Amino acid sequence: ANSAILRSIRFPVTFMTLWGFCISLFHKQLLKMGKADLAANFCIPSQPHSLMVSAMGLLLVFRTNSAYQRFAEGRKIWEEILSVARDLSRLGKLYEPQLGSAKLRRVNRLLAAFPYLLRFRIRPN
Hints:
This protein is mostly helical. It has helices spanning 4-32, 36-39, 46-94, 96-99, 101-122.
């Protein structure tokens, strides 16, 4: 996976999954050995879990909405950059006799390269 987020959470998620699995196996072994009273100490009530799920759901919704708003704003800015680059290119074509064709080609190449360079500056990989 190339996702930076997945790389950053891979270890904690794997660790917590293995930890939960070990606790589950230990609980099962206690029940097999007939130590139900000790195994009951490993059980937690379900009410805090259900309250936590509701809070996590709300948090996830807010984070998703804010992420989409940032994405939409970035897309709007990106479209504006492309629009201005096209406008400058058309304006240069209009004044080609005064600018000269060599200078116009250079300006158009720089305009074409600007969005790519900006993207690399914002997000290097």
